[in-house]
From TrEMBL:
Origin superkingdom: Bacteria
Natural source organism: Aquimarina celericrescens
Name of protein: DUF6734 family protein
Limits of the DUF6734 domain: 1-268
């Protein structure tokens, strides 16, 4: 199975999620993720922006430099670029995932990571988009969950193309109703992540309407069930802001130092001799 990664360092260096400049942490994390995956799989490609390329081009995989758009809001678009550019079956793995033993990525048409049960993150956005999407053939606003795309892969390329097409339709609706969306966000009390709807609920709705059940890598209807299964599988996903907790960053660096000392030293030297972002 071909494994692909993607990274645009612009959002993480420019206060994504109001977390400041996380460029260095993300470089270490991406390197650690890919180096662990490389222990089990050799057909790996990373699609990365020119700045990130300068730090990760020495990884033991294909590293493809891409001029991604500098967009804080649609930070997941590099993943869609990578997905669109595949010509054989693949699995995309997010850069905050660590595969600690071989996993058999067996699926028929499409694979997803798990069921994201945090419906409260989606519900307000679904209600907003429902006003503009009711007549879309692939839109279903009644689904009380979404498929997490921390891992997403396709063997059915017609399905892949449908997913990308529906994404562009939803993105167009966001653009056409930008003023209404901005007013909605201003009035909303809390944080909403539009990427969750455009990527993950997009896929969920499309699959439900078409009538395709994806293969699910991490089964379970609760976080506890999913965590137990992931641990047995040798799989760790540092969800959301948890990836930048100091203890997790320290552990990533320590593991890299122990397991991949040469790569760790090379990246450390580059990071310590450059500045990314504003002072």
């Amino acid at each position: 199975m071909r494994i692909i990664y993607s990274l645009n360092t612009y959002p993480v260096a420019n206060n994504r999620w109001n977390m400041g400049n996380r460029f260095d942490d993300t470089i270490y994390m991406t390197a650690g993720s890919i180096l662990h995956t490389h222990m089990w799989y050799k057909d790996i490609t990373l699609y990365i922006d020119p700045i990130g390329y300068e730090y990760l081009s020495g990884l033991p995989c294909r590293v493809v430099k891409v001029d991604f758009k500098q967009d804080l809001e649609l930070w997941m678009e590099p993943k869609l670029y990578a997905i669109e550019n595949q010509r054989e079956p693949f699995v995309h793995v997010d850069t905050d995932i660590f595969i600690k033993q071989p996993i058999e990525f067996e699926f028929e048409k499409v694979i997803v990571e798990r069921k994201d049960i945090g419906y409260y993150c989606y519900e307000p956005l679904i209600k907003f988009f429902d006003d503009y999407c009711k007549n879309l053939p692939l839109w279903d606003s009644t689904i009380p969950y979404a498929w997490s795309c921390g891992v997403i892969g396709f063997k059915d390329f017609a399905l892949r193309d449908e997913f990308l097409s529906f994404y562009r339709i939803l993105k167009g609706i966001l653009s056409d109703h930008r003023k209404e969306y901005d007013a909605f966000i201003d009035d909303y009390r809390g944080y909403l992540e539009i990427a969750l709807l455009l990527e993950q609920y997009n896929l969920t709705s499309m699959l439900k309407v078409i009538g395709i059940a994806p293969t699910v890598l991490i089964p379970g209807d609760t976080i506890q069930e999913q965590s137990r299964y992931a641990n047995n599988l040798g799989y760790t996903h540092l969800l959301g802001a948890s990836k930048y907790h100091p203890k997790n960053i320290d552990k990533i660096k320590r593991l890299m130092y122990i397991k991949f000392a040469d790569q760790y030293k090379s990246i450390q030297d580059r990071l310590e001799n450059t500045i990314i972002g504003s002072l």
